[in-house]
């Protein structure tokens, strides 16, 4: 029997302590979307991220709402953040940080985009950017770009796909 | 001026509330290491992860200790988890979940491995596995494998490198 104590139960984060020593963060699962232009550039969004005190460049992404499927969440986020609907295929899924957090991420590829805009959440402000995946990865290694793990996974998938087309 | 309240300050996690509404998890930065065999298989470690209630397959990885460089942490973790030292090159770095957490991950590639073992932390128990990167990615998509974001980034880098060698 494991004794679990809830330390905090908030808006997006729940913090638990298991057996008096294991700190576990509960967080909703999330989605991110890889969308490439015909020239092989990746659709990114630049936004202020308070947690890391930086403007990050990330793939369109967001949390899965209660009762929503990962694919429906990806479709909604793509419409909210870049005003597009598309055909979606799951590329991969993984835990962002399984050492202490249960958040799981689903990375989708988007094809055949068409205009379809939904309003952004009121506390979000984003700028759309097109960037070559290799430029993003070079900027990350050099420290000039701040980004997230699903964005890196999407960029690497894009390079794989582009390499296969040559 | 932003008012920040500390809700919890624990062993590996610190939880803050900014301006009464932004939940931010503070967590040490971490490293993960991509190590390939001559046949192109990836060195993975299987371990129990309480936060996700699963046995995960992950690249050798761990937290950066206070005052330690990312490269020194990667060298130490490789010696602790798989008993090898190696030449290390930074592949990429990124935030695991910048929407709410400041953890940054550094992914290194390891070459020219040689035996050099350091003892594991006493609360760690791991099993070493070799696996083809594509098998790992297929298992993730199908749901039969649980893994982490740095592991996925490393697997995709491995595929890029292997594709370049053909």
Automatic annotation (TrEMBL), chains A, B:
The keyword Lipid metabolism does not apply. GO terms for cellular component: cytosol. InterPro entries: Nudix_hydrolase (IPR020476), NUDIX_hydrolase-like_dom_sf (IPR015797), NUDIX_hydrolase_CS (IPR020084), NUDIX_hydrolase_dom (IPR000086). Residues 26-160 form the Nudix hydrolase domain. GO terms for biological process: nucleoside phosphate metabolic process; ribose phosphate metabolic process. The keyword Hydrolase applies. It comes from the Bacteria. Its cofactor is Mg(2+). Keywords: Hydrolase. GO terms for molecular function: pyrophosphatase activity. Belongs to the Nudix hydrolase family. This is MutT/nudix family protein. It comes from Deinococcus radiodurans (strain ATCC 13939 / DSM 20539 / JCM 16871 / CCUG 27074 / LMG 4051 / NBRC 15346 / NCIMB 9279 / VKM B-1422 / R1). The lineage of its organism: Bacteria, Thermotogati, Deinococcota, Deinococci, Deinococcales.
